[in-house]
Amino acid sequence: MATEQMKTAEHELEMELAGLLDVERFDPPAEFKQGALLSDPAIYEEAEADWKGWWERQARELHWFKEWDQVLDDSNPPFYKWFTGGKLNISYNCLDRHVEAGRGDRIAFHWRGEEGDERDLTYADLLAEVQRFANAMKDLGIRKGDVVGIYLPMIPEVVIAMQACARIGAVHNVVFGGFSPESVRERMVFSDAKALITVDGAARKGKTAAVKQAVDEVMGDLASLEHIIVVRSKGTPCEMKPGRDVFYDEIMAAAAAECPCEEMDAEDPLYVLYTSGSTAKPKGVLHTTGGYLTGVSATHRYVFDLHPETDVYWCMADVGWVTGHSYIVYGPLCNGATSIMYEGAPDYPHKGIWWELVEHYKATIIYTAPTAIRACVKWGAEHPRKFDLSSLRLLGTVGEPINPKAWLWYHKVIGGERCPIVDTWWQTETGAIMITPLPGIVSTKPGSATRPFPGIKAEVVDEREGKPIAEGQGLLVLTRPWPSMLRTLFRDDERFVETYFRRFGKETYLVGDASRRDKDGYYWVIGRIDDVVNVSGHRLSTAEVESAIVAHEAVAEAAVIGQHDEDTGQSICAFVTLQGTQEGSPELEDGIRATVAERIGKFARPKRILWADDLPKTRSGKIMRRLLRDIAEGRALGDVTTLRDPAVMAALESQIRSEEANES
Length: 664
Ligand code: WTA
Hints:
Layout: H1 2-20, H2 30-35, H3 42-49, H4 51-59, E1 70-73, E2 81-84, E3 87-88, H5 90-103, E4 107-112, E5 118-122, H6 123-139, E6 147-150, H7 156-168, E7 171-174, H8 181-191, E8 195-199, E9 202-204, E10 207-209, H9 211-219, E11 227-231, E12 245-247, H10 248-254, E13 264-265, E14 269-275, E15 283-288, H11 290-303, E16 312-315, H12 322-334, E17 338-342, H13 353-361, E18 365-368, H14 370-379, H15 382-385, E19 394-398, H16 404-414, E20 421-424, E21 458-461, E22 472-478, E23 488-489, H17 493-501, E24 509-517, E25 523-528, E26 532-535, E27 538-541, H18 542-549, E28 555-565, E29 569-578, H19 586-599, E30 608-611, H20 625-632, H21 647-663
Parallel strand pairs: 4-17, 6-7, 6-8, 8-11, 11-12, 16-17, 16-18, 18-19, 19-20, 29-30
Antiparallel strand pairs: 1-2, 3-13, 4-5, 9-10, 14-15, 15-23, 21-22, 22-24, 24-25, 26-27, 28-29
Helix pairs in contact: 3-4, 5-6, 5-7, 5-12, 6-7, 6-10, 8-9, 11-12, 14-16
């Protein structure tokens, strides 16, 4: 009976959503507009008329020990500098400033563990912890400019560690907890990290992963790593190497309570964050201090219409991705927000846990990824409907294009048709949100990130000459510097210029996405144009996955493509050629997936593995992925005349079709 009712309810919802599919645009709800920080569209023209002045006004919202001499130094593009000569400290802006203004008792984070454990941290609490940990790091000899790795789950210590680095001028390099220890090692080597902060164990849907033990297995001999600091979170046993390993709580207990802030130059590095590019080697995106904080705090305030006294804000991303850096840690703390931080998964202990937490903490703003919304759509509206979501007033998405159906479901089931949705387009490299609605001003269209944030200039250009296309599809570029832009790739200026500024010159930033612009000037980001795959909003390079696959002893060669996937946006499909005369088998598939999990992380495992006797290559030996995509998605093959051996395609196609027939 209950399931019958549920089925009817789901059916009714389907019909209602189908009815909404025809709505072309959604205007900001009147009630929202009334209370919004920004509701006058004139802000766009104002910022456009004097964009440096606009950013300068945003920078004035921060605390500076010394003001800048120059807003933008553009004398050596693409190496732009912002707020040169200015001195500030990010941790001071995020913590001390609020405490000094009497806001020390405000909750910075309502932290919630997977098993329901709760911990509230006020701004004063955070400041005390951060100062102590900053001193503890100094006691270990960590100084301004040193790189510190952070490999932690979603526990308050990850925020404390990042803020403590910012306080003393150490450069953090956070690695997402879903990456394997091998990936951590690689990132520690690339960035020459002096210390690594990690954890004994992490919660994984009722189980505990022994993180420190796994780290030891691959990190044992890394000489450059002088210290490993271990947070005791779950009580998981681990070995400690004398002279190298220390427990977080022990060094905290021995450290002094007060740690003054280092006065940082506006252009001093804040962090490096590795992200996937077109080659197997991840890129170390470098962000600096003054411009980055200006960009993330302004966008966080205006895109999320933050009213810090009353809002309860929840960014559901992991802190290990740029979304977590900018919109869990730096933007919200700088703006004095009260946030929710959740350690667990969206479906543990039950599929309504997110909505239970929204009700429990009376969340007003949530920010998540389209993949997560699609998962909720699949699980059914009955889960959110068990909880009171009436506290919500604004919804956000990031990470990949959102399909209109998921958008409408979010709008109706979660937002109760009263919450604007901000679909925010940006990247690790941009540091902050670039294309987005301002929720009190811009009408939204499901699937479009709408228009550039004030001060940002974007364009869609044609592939050949880079000429702007007013209406239609082309490559997305940013044609003006912005404060939170990456400054370079860590110790690799050449790759920085080559990747982003070779194609259309030193003043045009090549995004790497294709986009369409419609008659109203709205942007519809389509997806990557390079060999980067977006799985559940996680960026992966095909070359990175290929090199992990060929590490398997049975594999001779591999080619990886991103395939359309209803749940995860894209999924990984691998064409694998085996050594000698071996035959593919389910055991080999498992073995290959395990190798990828070990080398990169579980989230990079190929969903589909196709055995191929040979791969289509050009005369110069380059694998033609375009043809593989055609085959995998069952399309008619494109031009095969540039192939070295066109017969390969025919053979591959018939082989795959017969494999498919066997599977079904
Ligand atoms: C994609 C995540 C469509 C895009 C903040 C971009 C999006 C890449 C959107 C960056 C969006 C991000 N609509 N596509 N709203 N947001 N993307 O570096 O392809 O992990 O280039 O940064 O995600 O991924 P990254």
